[in-house]
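Deliverable D5.2: sample structural annotation.
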Amino acid sequence: MNLDQRNDNQPIRSGELPVVAGPSEDLSDLSADDELEGTPFSKWTLPISLFVATIFTTLWAGAYQPHSQGRRGPVDFLLDSPESLWQGIPFAATLLTILVTHEFGHYLFSRLHRVPASLPLFIPGPPHVIGTFGAIIRIRGPIMNRCALLDIGVAGPLAGFVVAVVALAVGLSLSQVGASRYGYHYGEPLLFQLMAWLIFGSLPQNAEILIHPIGFAAWFGLFVTSLNLIPIGQLDGGHVAYALWGARQRTVAFAIVPVLIVLGFVGWPGWWLWAFMAGLWGFGHPPVRDPHVPLGRGRIVVGWIALAVFVLTFVPTPFSFH
């Protein structure tokens, strides 16, 4: 996910594309580092410190997962068994590989298009589930055209998706089938169901897959991919939708929000939070400097592939208790 912090001095009314009166500004003689202002703390110390903290919290979450049904909380678990932290390596390494690949997909294509962007800022979280809230990249310069917007927006989800698929194949091959258990369950997107069927075939009645930590991390990688590809505002899906459809992306976003609200009633209440956040972020996407540069057939195909990935990874009820 990347956070657009661009400023545009020309006022543009909502839903309209800017009028380009002359040739686009030539930024070819500038590098991304030339345009990105910041102190050494914001450029290096903060991203590295947050990443180290996230390594610890994801290790902690991975080690705690097998014990999460017990009476001990994660803090008591860590204080009582600090030597168990290494057991979280399979989960933490897999999840962080997916997230790092995703974020550096954005970062590398930002540099290729000379768009100033920060290093990924990982957000450590409580160790009760996965130990992180993901990561963001701050974009502080103009995105000149829809080609750059599509490349930057789609690079992260597709790169992370490829790693997640490989991890899911490995994780499922290490998993086992057992009797269904009462407790917390995770919904299965279409891609997960397909790969599980290829590996295990049809499961007997009252049986379920006891997922390996690598597979569990891959599941979250797919879930994060689907969240980022929702075509709203400045999410990755918003970048892709605006690159493909221009101002019509706002109409798509307005149609998506009621769907999220309904899913909050019939599926996962967390969708209400996403609908609320969409209102805070804004439904529409900021305009690019030069909207007249055509995408070309190849980029259009890549954009539709990203939307197909969204369909394959989206799950209406990601979490349930039964």
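Annotation notes: Residues 6-30 have pLDDT under 50 and may be disordered. The CA atoms of residues 175 and 212 lie 5 Å apart.
The annotation will be released with the project's public dataset once the embargo ends.
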